Amino acid sequence: MNEVACDQVIDYQCSMSSTSAPYRFSFGPWNISEGEDPFGGPTRSKFLDEQKYALYRPLGFEGVQFHDDDVVPDLDSLSPDQVSRKVAEVKEMLTNQGLTPEFVAPRLWFASQTHDGAYTSNLAADRCYAWDRTKKCIDIARGLDCKAIVLWFAREGTYIREAKDARLAYRRLLGTINDILAYDQEIEIWIEPKPNEPTDQAYVPTIGHAIALAYASSSPGRVKGLIESAHAILAGLDPSDEMAFALEHDKLGSVHLNDQNGLKYDQDKNFGSANLRSAFNQVRVLEESGYGQRGEFIGLDVKAIRTQSGYPVTDHLKNSREIFLHLVDKVRSMDQTLVEQFRNARDYEAMELYIIKHLMGLR
Prior knowledge:
Elements: H1 3-15, E1 24-27, H2 49-59, E2 63-67, H3 68-71, H4 80-97, E3 100-105, H5 124-143, E4 148-152, E5 157-158, H6 166-183, E6 188-192, E7 201-202, H7 207-216, E8 223-228, H8 229-234, H9 239-248, E9 252-257, H10 276-288, E10 297-300, H11 315-332, H12 336-345, H13 348-360
Parallel strand pairs: 1-2, 1-10, 2-3, 4-6, 6-8, 8-9, 9-10
Antiparallel strand pairs: 5-7
Helix pairs in contact: 2-4, 9-10, 10-11
């Protein structure tokens, strides 16, 4: 960041009060869930997506994250006219609720044609299906007046390394990105990296890999990343550093904030619930970089605790948003002069104590 930009960020921090946060928040319909996991059935009653839209604004959310079949269920079985009608219906519901579609993502991990990867499948017919589904996703996004699609390469990887030619797989991923950019001249692609699950070892496991693909693409300005806290943790990395890297390259399209209790399965815990200091540093990096000033969303990808009762269960969303805003206040009230003094003196023990006391409300 140059000195002028840095001064602008500092001025912005000083001028903003805790009651005028510029942040807009989003979540996906799947974040109001039945508590189902791979080892058992639902623990809560189903709540229809059409009913969920009315909950967004009262909870303090404006943006809606979509998979293509969240907008159009049974997408593969419908005609183009049927798809268009359903898109128009959802668009009207969003307009009536004052909601904005943040992105649409092709769901390329459930269909039988994607069991061994979609864009990187060894079978040409499977890759053909993936491309057709991606074009439908782009059309759905544009039908909603949304200009971003998210690519989560869920099954783009292997369980044994010899199963695929990795160089060819990366070539196919880059080819798909270029095909998308050519198919629609305005759409943005946000790559969401994850190192594992559902596939054992995924291609594009970190934001660095995603940004490398962006720069190699035919239109680098339209290819960015989406960083999920838990995914970075699962890669053994610090989410705030991943965010800083993307921000320095002006390639952070959005974030999915949540938390993770170690290197386990993807838990989607409430933001800040497992590691409050890590959450603080994610907020600090976003705040100090001016993230959100161009309308970017703070996306939450959090799931209610499986054993939580209620109907519908939404406190995990409200609570995560509240924690984020509280941490914004903590960042803005931090004594920056003192922090700089600690840095210049290399007095990191004093800095450590100050940060801990600040988070505990003792400074």
